[in-house]
Backbone:
């Protein structure tokens, strides 16, 4: 599965471009506003370390400016243009950046705690080791957003759009992605415990090795998802979820709720579904070879077109469940009934 272009990979961990040679000290907020009123070009202008707390720069054009380690806490940057700006180590705590355009900017090691970035454009942005807990990125554009090790814990990313995005080792516990659209997103080993993915749509994404314990996926649509061995879905809520051509082979789904879901051509081979709820779920053309379903509840589940050989149904409740070719049938069904205690 091709997630990223070669060009994006080549810049994934490239060191950030250094700031220009130091000249005059960075202007104070008043001087910066005077420069903007005079129409002075900001591209390449060195504002490193500037104290710009609480400044109002709504709609200003700061594209290409150097703002390394600048202090913009509580600033208003609504609709501001900061394309290709160097924002390494910038402080944006509680800043209002709604609708701002940061395309191609570098946010490595930046901090934006509780910042408002709703509707912002962050296409091609790099934010490695950034710390943005509690930030509001609702409706943000995150295409080719590269953020290895970013902290998005308890951030809100409802309805965001992300294509060819990298979130390796991201920390996003308790984050919210309701209605988000992911396409070719790489989120290996991401920490997404208790994250809210309700009504999201993920296509050709990779979550292998991610911590998804207690996460919520009600009515999500997952197509071509890779979330196999090492991915932990323990206690996850997947009620009504739809999957197509996904691989969860060897993943942990103990105690998860998959009831009323529809899982098409999905590989559950050797998965741990101990104590899971699969009531009224459908599994057309799935592989459940070697799956562990001890003490699971599968009332009315449909395994009729799945391969369930060598599955462990000890203590499972399978009343009204359907098993037939090419899965369990005949003598195998009798064995399942005996293990599950079904008369």
Residues:
């Amino acid at each position: 599965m091709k997630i990223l272009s070669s060009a994006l990979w080549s810049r994934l961990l490239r060191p950030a471009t250094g700031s220009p040679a130091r000249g005059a000290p960075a202007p104070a907020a008043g001087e910066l506003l005077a420069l903007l009123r005079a129409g002075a070009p900001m591209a390449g202008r060195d504002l490193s370390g500037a104290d710009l707390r609480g400044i109002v720069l709504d709609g200003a054009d700061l594209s290409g400016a150097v703002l390394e380690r600048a202090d913009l806490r509580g600033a208003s940057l609504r609709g501001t243009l900061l394309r290709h700006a160097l924002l390494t180590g910038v402080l944006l705590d509680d800043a209002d950046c709604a609708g701002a355009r940061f395309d191609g900017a570098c946010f490595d090691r930046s901090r934006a705690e509780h910042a408002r970035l709703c509707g912002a454009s962050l296409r091609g942005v790099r934010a490695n080791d950034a710390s943005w807990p509690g930030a509001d990125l609702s409706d943000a554009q995150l295409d080719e957003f590269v953020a290895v090790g970013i902290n998005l814990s308890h951030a809100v990313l409802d309805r965001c759009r992300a294509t060819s995005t990298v979130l390796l080792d991201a920390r996003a516990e308790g984050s919210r992605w309701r209605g988000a659209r992911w396409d070719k997103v790489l989120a290996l080993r991401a920490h997404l415990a208790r994250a809210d993915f309700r009504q999201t749509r993920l296509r050709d994404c990779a979550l292998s090795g991610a911590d998804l314990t207690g996460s919520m996926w009600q009515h999500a649509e997952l197509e071509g998802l890779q979330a196999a061995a090492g991915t932990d879905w323990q206690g996850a809520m997947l009620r009504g979820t739809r999957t197509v051509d996904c691989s969860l082979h060897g993943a942990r789904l103990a105690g998860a709720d998959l009831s009323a879901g529809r899982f098409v051509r999905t590989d559950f081979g050797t998965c741990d579904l101990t104590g899971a709820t699969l009531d009224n779920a459908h599994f057309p053309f799935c592989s459940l070879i070697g799956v562990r379903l001890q003490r699971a509840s599968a009332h009315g589940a449909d395994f009729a077109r799945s391969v369930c050989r060598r599955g462990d149904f000890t203590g499972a409740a399978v009343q009204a469940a359907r098993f037939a070719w090419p899965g369990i049938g005949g003598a195998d069904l009798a064995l399942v009934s005996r293990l599950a205690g079904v008369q």
